[in-house]
Design brief:
By secondary structure, the protein is mostly beta strands. The protein is built from five helices and 19 strands.
Length: 446
């Protein structure tokens, strides 16, 4: 199946480049008076920021200490852009100082790593006392802009869908609701091709090779480990509609995203179907599941957003998931194993079964999670946002609260609280055993 999709893309690619756009440009004739010599902007732009973040958590038990950390990040790089092309390189340099490295969740905060990307551009240095140093390449990409197409290669962010908190359509660079700063959103090493069919319709193709940890050379990549996704998007009046399909981490996916703007409000609906490839061959299923759960799962979200009086924002969503881990014990074991590998506690298995079974997916414990967010713009400088994700079946929840202050055009101060509650001690509660935290940071761009 993968080989046929590759051949189809390679066959159609030259025709897509040569195809004429539907909307023709008008010929513009200038008089000599209109010809004014203007100074061309500098194609090279240096960019980056410095951020200082402080984080403290609650105690896991009365006889244990809490975790307090100072997280400094320097991001530096450049962007070189002309009319036809763009280079972007951004590098991170991090220093993390923590009060208690023996805290049970220390590694999940500071030692989690992104695995199996095409380009291994991360390095973590040995800890000195309570200090950890690490560096990674945040963005590394080249883009070519044609008359009606864009071709981009390298580490980049690809965002699909309109879900605000849990978005099943955002398959390659999903936004984690626990993320403290959107600037920390990880990129993916991919080939991205966008073709504008006319002023309203477009087509996108993504090809993302996966390089297993056991492979040291990029020429040892396998087609079966490659993500291939196609998306077609249509805009008509007040409706945006898109359909997608392809191969995603050893599974077949298909879905759609629909956004209707009416009465100054936004109504959203998204669906993603997934067919797992041979789950009975996964060693965790042979060990923990009998019978094996259905190979096809369904995820969806219904949402409503409304902004009023120019300062208030309201959003309500319901996320639904038939492939939850409470009904699939092997999936939970896969998640636990992959977490230990990501923190370097365990070596990766040769077949990487847990990686391909858990990557790129929204995995929840329960079938239905309502979500509500509220925002309030106090002034041009101050704003507040809050959100809650509920597990009504086990009466647990995740509450987040954020206050932002614009120090200047290039500076921002954020403070936030993430707290969790559960009225049951069951491990099946969505937010059982989570630690509440308070954080604050100042980010200064240059």
């Amino acid at each position: 199946m993968v080989k046929y999709l590759i051949k189809l893309f390679l066959f159609a690619f030259p025709f897509l480049l040569l195809a004429e756009p539907v909307q023709l440009e008008e010929e513009i004739i200038l008089d000599e008076e209109d010809l004014v010599t203007e100074e061309k902007p500098n194609p090279i732009e240096m960019k980056g920021f410095f951020r200082e973040l402080f984080l403290t958590t609650e105690k896991e038990a009365e006889n244990q200490k809490s975790l307090t950390s100072s997280y400094s990040r320097l991001r530096y790089g450049f962007q070189y852009r002309t009319e036809k092309m763009q280079w972007e390189v951004l590098q991170n340099l991090d220093t993390i100082i923590s009060s208690n490295k023996d805290f049970p969740l220390y590694d999940s905060y500071w030692n989690m790593r992104v695995r199996n990307r095409l380009l291994p551009l991360e390095k973590s240095y040995d800890q000195i006392n309570s200090t950890k140093l690490r560096t990674d390449t945040h963005r590394l990409s080249y883009a070519h802009y044609g008359r009606d197409y864009t071709l981009k290669l390298g580490r980049q962010v690809i965002s699909w869908g309109q879900g605000r908190l849990l978005n099943p359509i955002n398959l390659l660079t999903p936004i984690n609701p626990f993320l403290l700063d959107l600037e920390d959103l990880q990129g993916t090493d991919t080939l991205y091709f966008l073709k504008s069919l006319n002023a309203l319709d477009l087509m996108e193709i993504l090809i993302t090779p996966i390089r297993r940890n056991s492979e040291n050379k990029t020429n040892s990549l396998s087609l079966k480990d490659t993500n291939i996704l196609l998306r077609y998007k249509v805009s008509r009046d007040n409706i945006d509609y898109s359909v997608l399909g392809g191969i995603h981490y050893h599974s077949y996916v298909w879905g759609y995203d629909l956004v209707l703007t009416k009465w100054d409000a936004s109504f959203r609906m998204a669906y993603l179907g997934r067919r797992e490839s041979d789950p009975e061959k996964n060693p965790f299923y042979n060990r923990y599941e009998n019978p094996i759960p259905p190979a096809t799962i369904h995820q969806g979200v219904l949402g409503y957003s409304y902004a009023f009086y120019g300062k208030y924002r309201f959003n309500f969503e319901i996320f639904m998931n038939s492939g939850n881990s409470n009904s699939d014990k092997a999936l939970r074991k896969n998640m636990e194993y992959e977490s230990l590998v990501s923190m370097s506690y365990l070596p990766a298995s040769q077949d990487e079964a847990s990686f391909f079974r858990t990557s790129g997916r929204i995995i929840t414990k329960n079938k239905v999670l309502p979500e509500v967010s509220l925002g309030y713009t106090i002034s041009q400088l101050w704003s507040m946002d809050s959100f809650i994700i509920l597990d009504p079946h086990h009466k647990s929840g995740f509450l987040g609260f954020i206050v932002s202050y614009n120090l200047s055009d290039k500076g921002i101060w954020n403070s936030g609280l993430q707290t969790f509650f559960s009225q049951t001690k069951s491990e099946e509660a969505e937010f059982a055993n989570y630690q509440s935290m308070f954080y604050t940071f100042v980010r200064w761009s240059f």
